[in-house]
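1st attempt posting a full record on here, be nice pls
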Amino acid sequence: MTQTIGTNQMSHQYFFADHHTLPLPANHRFPAEKYMLTREGLMEIFSLTSDSFIPSPLATKEELLTTHCPIYVDHVFNGTLDDRAQKRIGFPWSKELVKRVRASTGGTLAAARVALETGYGAQLAGGTHHAHYDFGSGYCVFNDFAVAINVLRAEQKIKRAAIIDLDVHQGDGNAALLADNPDVLVFSMHGAKNFPSRKHPSDIDIELADGCDDNGYLSQLALVLPHIEQFMPEIIFYQAGVDVLATDRLGRLALTTKGLAQRDHQVFSMAQRMRVPIVQVLGGGYGEPLSTTIEGYLTTFQVARQYYPTPY
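the predicted structure (as tokens):
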């Protein structure tokens, strides 16, 4: 049963990375302002103060090296990525970019530590699921889920982890880095014809046709979630992308905001029923207008508020 909790009872704190600017050329396609707008929206709808938001710590080089190639990490840190590598990522290199992507990764790890203590952790960034061992791609430089899982496993804080990736784009980096590990279950449900053109096999992939609506989407998700339960993870990483919405210019699916909320109810209710900690990150969102993306993100956090924190 969902427990509805009033704002004055809540103790959520959200990690955020938008204090590090993401300097982009004029007319760049990536809507970097969505992170700050989401934070401001949360402050408004939940009547929060700045104390509810924690700057995401920078992932250390040692943490990144649990997952990524040392040469690649050095290239990112030192600004020696070649033009081709930068083009594949989609961002021009800058010192500010390095801080931003380290914060995005470190914030997910920090949120995971909180989740292990309280049952729920969240970051208003993250979900960089296109980053591979020795290259970045699709606006992703370092893979925050893989780094967090590898660090926590190395520290013996967890053994088994699951990824529920509901971004409209397949989490090819997650799959490449983690799907061969029997103690990590990687699940991605995404548009069949969407980016990336070359998919890397996850443990569970559900490919959706263009125009998939609420009913089709939710029925597919309901079929997969029992497999997550059977795997019995000790923590779940949830990529709650809102680029599945019909208003998203890159999504090609047809979900409504109501369908998005039902999606999140399925995921959070399962995690709470299992009494498994869950980490929520933003994932993708490229709405036209951008306000539809912000509404989607806020909807997902409103659903989470109905489940967490509760007696754990």
